[in-house]
Amino acid sequence: MSDREHTEAVPDGGVQRAVVTDGTGTAWAEDREIPDPGPGEALVRVTAIGICGSDVGLVEGEGPPWTDFPVVLGHEVAGEVVELGEGVDDLEVGQRVALHGFVYCGTCGACRDGRYYQCDDLKEIGFTVDGGYRKYAAWPAYTLTPLPDDVSDVEATQIDSAGCTLHAMNRVETSFTDTAAVLGPGALGLYGVQLLRAQGVTDVVLTGTRDEPLEAGRKLGATRTVNICEEDPVEAIRAHTDGRGVDICVEAAGAGDVLETCVQSAAKQGKIVLTGVFGERKAIDPDQIVAKELTVVGGVTASHAVDEVIELFRRGDLTVDGVVTHEFPLEEFEEAFKTIRERRDGIVKAVLRP
User: Fold this and answer.
1) CA–CA gap between residue 220 and residue 215 (Å, rounded)
2) Are residues 125 and 222 in the same domain?
3) Please, is 304 exposed, middle or buried when counting C-beta atoms within 10 Å of its C-beta (0-12, 13-18, 19+)?
4) 7 part of a folded domain
C-alpha cells in the first residue's frame, strides 16, 4: 500500500524544528530555516526517518572521522520532493524518494573506481551535512532514489540498513548448500537472515542476547536461535553443524566477543562478513584464519545496493515486520532515544515521523 500524500505547500520564509547534537551527550530541538534548494539540489519533505544506532552513538561523540559537529541527525530518510533546484531534471515534484546520503567529488580515484563512499573529500548526510531529523531538507539530487508506490515510507527508511548488510554480503559468494550464522539480531542482523534466505541459504543460525529479536529472527527464517547469555555460541553453532562450523558467518553486532565467535565458528575455508562498527580494537586468533584458510571481508554503507533492496522489498523477500517495532513523532525523539538505550518494550528499530 502506498504512503503517497498530496504535496503540501512549503511555507514561505518559514522555520522548522530540527534535532541537533554536538556529540557531548545531548541532542536538542532548535529552530532552523526551511532551506531553498540550490543548483543540483531538491527540497524534500521528510515523511519518516529511521533511528540508526549510529545516531545514538553520534550524540555520545561516536562517529566516522569525517563527522562535523554540530549536526542535524538522521540519514535513514523517506520523503517527497517538493521543489527542484536549477539543473535537476531526473526528479519530479511530488515524487517519493529514499535518501542514500553520500556527497562525493566524483573525480578522485575512489570515485572514478565506483567507490564513491570512500571519496577523498567525502561528506555524509547526518554526519557532516545536516540530516533528516526535521520536516524539510535540501540535498543533492543524486542522493535521492525514486520509490515505487508499493514500497512504503517505513520500508524506505530501512533501505540503508538492509543495503549495508547486502553490500557486505555481496563481497562473498553464497550457495544454497551453505550453512550460515548471523551474529546480532538488530536490524542489520535481521535483514541478514532474510537476505541469506533470499539467496537460497536455508540453514541460518541467529545469535544474540535478547529473546524478543531472536524470536523475530526465527519468524523471519532463522533455523536455530541462540541466546548467548544462556548458551555458548561457538558450541551451539558447532553442535548445529555436527562439528563442522558454518560456511558463512555474518557479523552484525559490533560488540562483545563476536569477532572471535566468527573465527571459531567458521568452517574450513569459510567466509566471514563484518558489518558492525566496534569503535575499539578487538583481539582474535589469527592462527584460526590461517589454518582454516578463512576469507574475511568488511562492508560499509549500502553502496550499489539501493535499487536491489528496493526490488527485494517489492517482491516480498524483505520485510520490516519484526524489525521496525516502534514509531514516535519527531518531537518525542528524547523518549525514542531513551527507549532504544534502555532496550525497553522489545524494541529493535524505531522510526520517527515529522
Assistant:
1) 9
2) no
3) middle
4) no
C-alpha 192/C-alpha 312 separation (Å) is 13
Query: Is 1 inside any structural domain?
Result: no
**Cβ neighbours, 10 Å, residue 160:** 24
Place of cell 522489498: 313
Shared-domain flag, residues 31 and 96: yes
Q: What is the identity of the amino acid at 67? A: T
Tens digit of pLDDT per residue, the chain (354 long)?
A: 334 344 567 776 689 999 999 999 999 999 999 999 999 999 999 999 999 999 999 999 988 777 999 999 999 999 999 999 999 999 999 999 999 999 999 999 999 999 999 999 999 999 999 999 999 999 999 999 999 999 999 999 999 999 999 999 999 999 999 999 999 999 999 999 999 999 999 999 999 999 999 999 999 999 999 999 999 999 999 999 999 999 999 999 988 899 999 999 999 999 999 998 877 888 899 999 999 999 999 998 899 999 999 999 999 999 999 999 999 999 999 999 999 999 999 999 999 999
Return d(Cα 115, Cα 138) in angstroms, integer. Answer: 24
Query: Do residue 181 and residue 131 come from a single domain?
Result: no
Domain ranges, residue 273:
163-298
CATH number, residue 214: 3.40.50.720
Nine-digit cell at 206?
541467529
CA 34 to chain CA centroid, Å, is: 27
Residue 2 lies in a domain: no
* Spatial CA neighbour of 58 closest among 70, 76, 49: 70
- Are residue 77 and residue 147 in the same domain, yes or no? yes
Residues 235 and 217 in one domain: yes
Let me know whether 103 and 134 are in one domain: yes
> Helix and strand tally (H, E) in the chain?
11, 18
Kindly state whether residue 318 falls inside one of the protein's structural domains.
Answer: no
Task: Output the nine-digit C-alpha cell for 255.
Answer: 560488540
Q: Which of 276, 228, 226, 222 is nearest to 253 (CA)?
A: 276
Angle, vertex CA 216, rays to CA 229 and CA 220, nearest 5: 125
Residue 69 and residue 181 in one domain: no
Q: Which residues does residue 50 pair with via DSSP β-bridges, in sequence order?
A: 76, 351
